[in-house]
C-alpha cells in the first residue's frame, strides 16, 4: 500500500488598516491644547478594527478599542496629557495639553491594529515642537509722515510674547539694514 502525502502551501496575507493621514501640528503653543488626528481605512476583506493607540514617545497616552467597554481609555503621563478623545471606525482625534517647556520636541505615534486571525499593526509618527508663536504682527512706532534722504530716524518695533523670541529684521526699500540696538 502506497501512501501519498501532499503538503499544501498556504499563504496568509496579513493586512491591516492603512493610515491615510496623520495630522500633528508642526508647532504647538504650551498655553493651548494641540489637536491630533489619525485617519485610517481598511480594504474589503480586512479583519475588523481592534484598536487605535496614541503614543507620546514610547508611552501610551490614549486607546480606542471598539469591541470593549469603555471604548476609550486615557493613560496618565507627566508630559502631554490627553484632555479628550473622539474616535470611530475611520478617524481617532485627541486633544493634548503640552508641557510649559519651550523648544521641546515631542513625537506622537498613531498605531492601528486589526482583529483576528492575525493582529496586524501599522503605525506612523510625527513630531511637534512646543513654541509660543506670535499672535499679531509687530507694532512699529515713531514712523514720520515724511523723511529726507540721509535723515536719521528712531523707530521702535515691538512684538508680543514668543518663545523662542522673535528675530526682528529691518528692511529699507527691500534691503536688509544693520541696526544699532
UniProtKB/TrEMBL annotation:
InterPro entries registered for this protein in UniProt: Ig-like_dom (IPR007110)
Entry annotated with the keyword Ribosomal protein? no
Q: Which UniProt keywords apply?
A: Signal
Keyword Zinc applies = no
Q: Which residues form the signal peptide?
A: 1-16
Which part of the chain is the Ig-like domain?
A: 28-129, 138-181
What is the protein named?
Uncharacterized protein LOC114248048
| UniProt organism field | Bombyx mandarina (Wild silk moth)
